[in-house]
C-alpha cells in the first residue's frame, strides 16, 4: 500500500489537471486542487480559490489546504494559459501574461510549498510542461519559453533540495485529447496525428499515470528528469 500523501494540483478543475487529481484520489491520497473561482474540482477533492499570478492568493490557498489536510507533500504545478500569435503580432503583454502564469506562477507555488517539504524531509514536485517547450512551435514563443523554463526550475530545485529527499521532475505532454484539441478542424487533427509516431492523440489519463508514478516511492531516485508523454512526437527534445 502506498503511503497516503497530501497532494495539491494547481489548475485541477479541468483537462489534464483534473485527470491528475482524479488519479491521486483513486490511489487513496488526500487531494486538493486550485481553480480561479474556487469551484469545479473533482468529487472527493478539496477545491480552493487561487490565482497563481498573486502570491497572497497562493498563500491563502495553501493555508486552507494545510488546515484541512496538513502540509502539502506532493505539488503538481499544472496551471497554465496560452496567448498564441506570431512573433510580429505578439505584444509584450501577451508575452508577460503567459510567463507570469505558466513560469512565475510555478515559481510562486513551489516557493510556498518548499518550507513544508523541508520540514517533512520528503517531497515530490512535478511540473507540467509541454512538448512545445523543447520542440518549439510557430505562434507560441511565449508559451514555449514558459514551458522550457520549467525544466530549469526542476533541475535547479533538484540540485538545491535533492539531499533532503525531495525530487523535482517535469512531465511534457504532447497533443492530448482535451477541449482545446476537440475544437480543431478534422483536417488539422489528421495533419497533427500524421506527425506523431503513435498515430493518435494522448488521453489525459496517460499524463496522470506518469505524474502519479513520479510522485510514488517507485520513482524516488528520479529527479531533474523530463518525461515526454507525447506518442514519440518530441522524443524528449
TrEMBL record:
Q: Which organism is it from?
A: Gulosibacter bifidus
Q: SUPFAM superfamilies given for it?
A: NAD(P)-binding Rossmann-fold domains (SSF51735)
Q: Which Gene3D superfamilies match?
A: NAD(P)-binding Rossmann-like Domain
- Under which name does UniProt file this protein? Beta-ketoacyl-ACP reductase
Q: Which family does it belong to?
A: Belongs to the short-chain dehydrogenases/reductases (SDR) family.
In terms of domain of life, where is this protein from? Bacteria
All copies of domain Ketoreductase, residue ranges? 5-179
Recorded hits in PANTHER family, A to Z, give: 3-OXOACYL-(ACYL-CARRIER-PROTEIN) REDUCTASE (PTHR42879), 3-OXOACYL-[ACYL-CARRIER-PROTEIN] REDUCTASE FABG (PTHR42879:SF2)
Q: Which Pfam families match?
A: adh_short_C2 (PF13561)
Q: Which InterPro entries match?
A: KR_dom, NAD(P)-bd_dom_sf, SDR, SDR_fam
Question: CDD domains, per this entry?
Answer: BKR_SDR_c (cd05333)
Amino acid at each position: 500500500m502506498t503511503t497516503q500523501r497530501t497532494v495539491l494540483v494547481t489548475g485541477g478543475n479541468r483537462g489534464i489537471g483534473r485527470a491528475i487529481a482524479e488519479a491521486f484520489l483513486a490511489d487513496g491520497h488526500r487531494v486538493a486542487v486550485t481553480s480561479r473561482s474556487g469551484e469545479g474540482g473533482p468529487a472527493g477533492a478539496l477545491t480552493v480559490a487561487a490565482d497563481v499570478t498573486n502570491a497572497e492568493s497562493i498563500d491563502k490557498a495553501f493555508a486552507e489546504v494545510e488546515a484541512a489536510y496538513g502540509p502539502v507533500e506532493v505539488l503538481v504545478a499544472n496551471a497554465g494559459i496560452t496567448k498564441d500569435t506570431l512573433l510580429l503580432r505578439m505584444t509584450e503583454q501577451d508575452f508577460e501574461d503567459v510567463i507570469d502564469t505558466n513560469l512565475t506562477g510555478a515559481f510562486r507555488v513551489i516557493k510556498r510549498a518548499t518550507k513544508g517539504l523541508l520540514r517533512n524531509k520528503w517531497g515530490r514536485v512535478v511540473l507540467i510542461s509541454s512538448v512545445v517547450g523543447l520542440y518549439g512551435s510557430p505562434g507560441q514563443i511565449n508559451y514555449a519559453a514558459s514551458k522550457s523554463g520549467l525544466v530549469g526550475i526542476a533541475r535547479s530545485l533538484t540540485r538545491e533540495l535533492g539531499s533532503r529527499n525531495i525530487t523535482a521532475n517535469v512531465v511534457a505532454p504532447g497533443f492530448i485529447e482535451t477541449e482545446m484539441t476537440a475544437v480543431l478542424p478534422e483536417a488539422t487533427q489528421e495533419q497533427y496525428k500524421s506527425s506523431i509516431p503513435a498515430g493518435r492523440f494522448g488521453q489525459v489519463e496517460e499524463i496522470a499515470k506518469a505524474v502519479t508514478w513520479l510522485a510514488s516511492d517507485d520513482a524516488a531516485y528520479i529527479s531533474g528528469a523530463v518525461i515526454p508523454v507525447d506518442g514519440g512526437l518530441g522524443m524528449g527534445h
